[in-house]
């Protein structure tokens, strides 16, 4: 046995509970060694493996080049065979049914021994919660070898996922956009469904659903519970099934769906293969009408977060990020740094009540379905599982919580940690009208600034490994922008590199950028659009973007080259004047604790 207290752990535990967690893991290992796996576990594993291979086979004509290249690299470096997915799938179909549970269990004594075991423990340690030494760990291991253990009981239920089918609703109107290949259905409960069948991937259907409101509608007392509600409710299972039972029930199905509660909206995101599409709709229906709040999952979540707290508080990066965020958010109550006190505000019951409240009315929901399906397949599923969802007809919008970025110039230094490195963030912000034109200019400005600063700070001055530049425009809850520049460097070079950043930004305002930089950004935008035309994920995001803003979605088919060619270098300089205002920014710099800055 080797003991290493510096490697990253494979599981996170509560501070100080190293030995208890170790016993739990080693007991299960020993249980497998003594009794082997159960037939139901074996059957589920075999079914899942075959199903995953089947999906890969069905997508064989859409395999990404990087995956194929990786296979050839492994073949060259380690001799891995490259028979191709068609042959692999046939072999799997032939060989997998011939493998028996006894054969698998016979391998356990050979593969799971105390002679090939490495136990790694890492954590904050300290006098009050010391890391266990090798002697203590060995004692736990030896005790497990003689412990009184019983065989694992794999409880499996044959109960249906949805015990009673809902009373179907109806599709009351249908609009077809033949140019886009898109159909919009309005349901009897008021919800809308946007459908776009594609042939991009044979085994992929992507799903999303949104409704305005989100955590913004919670009061301050329950805000933290509301914003974190899906962290544990989403993992509590659904209907009559807890999380473990649900996982077993979904064996062999390629499907996922998760509820979310964001700042200004709530909804669902998910995906499935065409043959598992009904299961996805059933899961959504259950999350909406029969959610679960498992106290064990909640306690597990709270324990994990608490265990990370000490590490976060000791982290220089956390201190830097917290300072930047609270300053940018003007010390708003809802944007406080995460701490033990804030975690104490998170309670299971208020979270569950808020979750149910957000999903008790579907009249203002919009559902999106993009991928390998046809309308005839989707119609009965939509009528059964979506049109039947509850509806009260309430009218809501996400609420503006009043947060605004600070006026003027704010510069702060953070001294944390001993490692000789610094981090710098400069963030410009303010209110600005949201338009498609300003979004394009912001995107090109971001690319030009990124290219220029990367060339100067990294390549010319050799002061940093990389520069992060990001510009965003938002239209909710109010029209605004942020433009951030960040980089890491040696503490003694902060002033030099920051001066270079300012010099380059001021030069960009007075001198239009090199047309080469602008052309590179234009070409990247065009390539992104061209690639997205054959990707389900891009279409899903585009349809959401245009639908939520009540804009004409046929613009999706227009090559952006003509519009982008109309943006001149002088327009980028003008955008730099607008978005890189040296009279309104926040700068935060991280230094080591012993720095003389």
Would you mind describing this structure in some detail?
The protein is an alpha+beta fold and about 600 residues long. The protein is built from 21 helices and 14 strands. The strands form 3 sheets. A 7-stranded mixed β-sheet has the order 3-4-5-9-6-8-7, sandwiched between helices. It has a 5-stranded mixed β-sheet with strand order 10-14-11-13-12, sandwiched between helices. It has a two-stranded parallel sheet with strand order 1-2. A hairpin with a 3-residue loop joins β7 and β8. α10 runs parallel beside α15. Residues about 1-10 have low confidence and may be disordered.
Any key phrases for this structure?
14 strands, globular, alpha+beta, 5-stranded mixed beta sheet
Mass-distribution shape: globular
Oligomeric state of the chains in view: single chain
> What percent of residues adopt helix (DSSP H or I)?
40-55%
Q: Strands of the biggest beta sheet: in what spatial order?
A: 3-4-5-9-6-8-7
How would you characterize the largest beta sheet? 7 strands, mixed
- What's the pLDDT, averaged over the residues? 93
Number of helices: 21
